[in-house]
Structure formats: C-alpha cells, structure tokens
Amino acid sequence: MHHSKELKELFKAILSLENEQECYDFFEDLCTIKEIEQMTQRYAAAKLLNEGKTYEEVIEMTEISSATLSRVSKCIKYGKGYKNIINKQK
Predict the structure, then answer these.
(1) Helix 66-78 crosses helix 33-50 at what angle (to 10 degrees)?
(2) Three-state SS sequence of 39-72
(3) Which of 19, 42, 57, 81 sits a CA distance of 20 to 30 A from 89?
(4) Cα gap 53→82, rounded to integer Å
C-alpha cells in the first residue's frame, strides 16, 4: 500500500483517539453506517477464523459473504494487521 501523506495523517488521527467515545464519534463522522458495519463484520470474522472456526461457521455467525471471508482469511494467513490486534486483545 502506498503511504501517502494523507494516509499517514489519517492514521495519526486514529492513533490520537483517547477513548471509546472518541472512536465512535470519529468513525461515525468518517464512515457511513454500512462501512462501519462491514468493518465490524470483517473483524468478527477474522477473530472467528483465528479461533479455528470453519468458513461455514463464520458465514452462519456473521452473515459475511464468501468472497469477503476469503479476503479476510488471506489476511489472517499472510497479513500482520488482524493478528497483531487480535493477539493484543487476548
């Protein structure tokens, strides 16, 4: 991913959030309700996959599409982002 100046500024803004309410307020302004729901669904699916749930179980529990679940699965296997956050929250 190209790390543009704007992307770095966005990430710095996110890192400056100090509590859960600030997160709610910021993301409600930044994203549509649907976008927030999709991010929530993907994160839930990542946690379930990380716990060893099958595709079928994850789809049933989250109602995520198989195409999106495939992308999340690839990120769990080869990426760092989900793993870092999920492991911090254990």
Answers:
(1) 60
(2) HHHHHHHHHHHHCCCCHHHHHHHHCCCHHHHHHH
(3) 57
(4) 16
- Residue 38, helix vs strand vs coil: helix
Which residue type, as a one-letter code, is found at position 9?
E
Asked whether the beta carbons of 64 and 58 are under 8 A apart, the reply is: yes
SS3 call for 1: coil
Nearest-angstrom CA–CA distance, 89 and 79: 17
Q: Do 82 and 48 meet the contact criterion of CB atoms below 8 Å apart?
A: no
What are 69's two structure tokens?
């679940």
Q: Model-level pTM? A: 0.83
* Pair 76, 46: CB distance under 8 Å: yes
